[in-house]
Amino acid sequence: MICLQLWRAVPTERRLAWCLVLYLASLILVSMTGKSDAENLPPVKIVAFGTSLTARGGWQPGLQTRLAACLQRPVSVESVAKSGETSTWALTQLDRVLAEQPDIILIELYANDATLHRFVSLAQSRKNIGEILDRLHQRLPRARIILMAMNPFSGLRGLIRPFVDSYILVHQAEAQKRGLEFVDHRPGWERLSPDDLAAAIPDGAHPRPEVASKIIVPELVGHIAGPGCGE
Fold first, then answer.
1. Do 7 and 74 belong together in one domain?
2. What superkingdom does the record give (predicted)?
């Protein structure tokens, strides 16, 4: 009724301009409302769970930034990781992961299991990762659980892990048996020349963060958000 009265009060020759002003105002209001809704979405919470390849990885900030831009919503990435630890240690850290109530859990827990001096057999590693996956999935049934294979090892770091590929395979098999996801970053590293690879991983185990980000982040963003998003 008020709108009708206002319409009648506007001189006929000005009604077109008045309509245009109202139309533009409505477009601005819709645009501002859409932006507010996007900003008010809760963040996508990610926990990276692993060894020094996570604790010292340096790829988490890039993942957070690029995934947020791709999804058009906030993203937070936290780490539960410790250098030198194994899947046996990881079994004692599940409450820390669960406390974050993540939407996505990224897991790499094979690298130190595979070292000769830590005495985690292939069978024990497989049992551990199976228990980790079961407990996480039971407590967080809606979370995406993604196992990862990371970078290659070389030099002494490679020599003490002669069967690392077998450890990766059994972790992958346990994920697939449960219908969970697996992302293999090794092909990205294999595309580097031998000299570039040596420069990227100078100690034979821990990549430079800037190079790790270039290889790991696009792969994860594309896997999480869909093809084309990580490019």
1. no
2. Bacteria
138-164, pLDDT tens digit by residue?
999 999 999 999 999 999 999 999 999
Do residues 11 and 102 both lie within one domain?
no
pTM of the model: 0.83
- Whole-angstrom CA distances from 140 to 2, 99, 152 are 53, 10, 31
For residue 20, give its domain range.
2-36
Q: pLDDT value at position 14?
A: 62
My answer on whether 22 and 62 are in the same domain is: no
On whether residue 230 sits in a domain, the answer given is no
* pLDDT at residue 123 in the model: 98
